[in-house]
Amino acid sequence: MRKFLHDNALGLFFGFILLLALAGQAVAGLADYNAEQVSNGLATVTMGRYLTSSSFGTDVAENWQSEFLQFLLFIVATTWLLQRGSPESKPLDKAGRESDQDQKLGAYLTPQSPRLARVGGRVSALYSNSLGLVMGLIFLACWFVQSLTGQVAYNEQQIAQLQAPVSWAGYLGSPDFWSRTMQNWQSEFLAVGSMAVFSIYLRQRGSPESKPVGSGHDSTGVEG
Q1: How confident is the model at residue 2 (pLDDT cuts 50, 70, 90)?
Q2: Same domain for 88 and 198?
Q3: Taking a C-beta distance cutoff of 8 angstroms, is the pair 119, 126 a contact?
Q4: How many domains does the chain fold into?
């Protein structure tokens, strides 16, 4: 058990704090939702009802889709785009998909190479892009869920204000949908861009997201 915890500590840590954050969001969100219900002269709801509500669903989905969009863009952009001095960038002579030797494919496969990399052909080609594809699919799934739950929440407000509800397609073109979407996207782009640039000049000893403390500012693609 100790070895398992040691070898998987990063994933377990973030999984644990994710659950804590979801629980905190549920508690705070329920209190806020019920306060609004009371102010509108409506009945309060239970935790179970709130967790299955469009209000909670759209709040979670809109955050998740922006996170997976961030990773999708970062994975794809760093294949081709470089940033001198940043550990988030590949070395300046490695732009693009790189050679089979660099990627340990074809004649350069090793006994430790994943089975799907060893198959060759379309299977290996698909596996070569599997990380970006999965991130993209999760992003689209979360964005779709956000649009559905957001439409329901929006229409609840419309009906409460004695206004006509909108269709799913109508909601996709609404300012409410794009306001929610863009306020999440801009924060993700800011965070990734800041990390790429700040890490040129700043250090965090022992972190793989930082260059070694003594590395020069121009050192590119070097991790601590």
Answers
A1: confident
A2: yes
A3: no
A4: 2
Each residue's pLDDT tens digit, 56-87: 999 999 999 999 999 999 999 999 999 999 98
Using alpha carbons, select from 132, 113, 112, 115 the residue that is nearest to residue 123.
Answer: 115
Q: Give the pLDDT confidence score for residue 197 in this predicted structure.
A: 92
Q: pTM of the full predicted structure?
A: 0.86
Q: Would you call 62 exposed, middle or buried from its count of C-beta atoms within 10 A (0-12, 13-18, 19+)?
A: buried
Residues 141 and 80 both lie in one domain: yes
224 pLDDT band, cuts 50/70/90, is low
Is residue 224 domain-resident?
yes
Q: Does 65 lie in the same domain as 28? A: no
Expressed as residue numbers, the domain containing 152 is: 54-96+130-224
In three-state secondary structure terms, 123 is: helix
- Asked, for residue 121, whether it belongs to a domain, the answer is no
| Separation between Cα atoms, residue 177 and residue 70, nearest integer Å | 19
